[in-house]
Prior knowledge:
By secondary structure, the protein is α+β, with helices and mostly antiparallel strands. Among the domains are: 72-122 and 130-194, no CATH class; 218-361, no CATH class. Helices cover 45% and strands 12% of the residues. It has 16 helices and 10 strands. The chain is globular, with a radius of gyration of 22 Å. The two termini are 28 Å apart.
Amino acid sequence: MSLLGGAIVEAVVMEYGRGELLRRLSDPFWFQSLGCVLGMDWHSSGITTSVMNALKRSVSLRSSELGVYICGGRGRSSRQTPAELLDVAERTGLDGEALVRCSRLSAKVDNTAVQDGFQLYLHSFVVTAEGDWAVIQQGMNPAGRMARRYHWLSSSLESFTQEPHASVCGLNQGLILNLTHREAAMTKEGILELTRERPDRLLHEAALVMPCHHEVTAGDVDLKRLGAALILAHESEVADFESLLLLPGVGPRTLQSLTLVSEVIHGTPSRFTDPARFSFAHGGKDGHPFPVPTEIYDRTIEVLDRAIHSARLGERDKTEALKHLSRVSVSLERGYEPGDYFDKYVEQERRNAWRWGGKTVYGDAKPPDDTPPEAAGSRQLTLW
């Protein structure tokens, strides 16, 4: 997970810059899509912890090269954020005290100024060599066993005390005490009176609310977009695969994953309104929509790493081929009308999961009972 996450981060920085990486991390739809393409439970609050831990592990190995530094984390790690930021400042010449102040203020706002019933347990601070930053932090409501994620972005921040969030992800909590709302200016002047009332200060929240059901249903994805990606991967007549990828050993199933990974790297914000669609790249560790195909996962990392390595050497044909995947997928959507394929496709992926080394937190995927003995050793066929 950390290897693929690190490769995606490097690809985004290489193609679009560090500022764009921060903007994407502050977009809850892109963040959720990233977690899905990495194989996390598509609807789980645990996606936040897992994604940030994976990115921190991978990015820390090449922070100086990328100019991106990830500090903090969950629980005890979150309390190390100030020390880690000061260390980054020592290495980069940034104003460490100013960064520490931003970190503490963002945490204080979401824990104290916004009293929505959620207590922070995760605080990740991402800063670039230019001093721009993003914060991804998450709170838990023990009573409701629900989590809420808060996204901050320095480039869009005008005030820490007046609507500072880039977005907030979670169920609307109705009437809450939100001292960062722009209509709360006079309230902050009369704070003692405010605490005796029930102010109608609604926190601005993103429209991303994940459902309670574990399974991925047809209603959770854009069937037109998913169908186009599947056609690109599995219908050889719609594309010249050899000229598209120029990479040996890539079969249709790997191409399916690469198409969705390519969209996470190169897609525009409007492409991430259905994060669950990206779970069809590598499944989910809870088995939904299907077990994580570890062999396909490893091949995706291999292809992406190879493309990035070539780009570092000035050979951009492979990165351009991967970028072209998302373009072709979008073009295929035009005129495409999705049929009744979803349930059959999910069933097919589950039946074939064992072929690709499918795994979940419950164990390895097993061949269906009706699998012929001679098929037990078969693996993905390559196109060339």
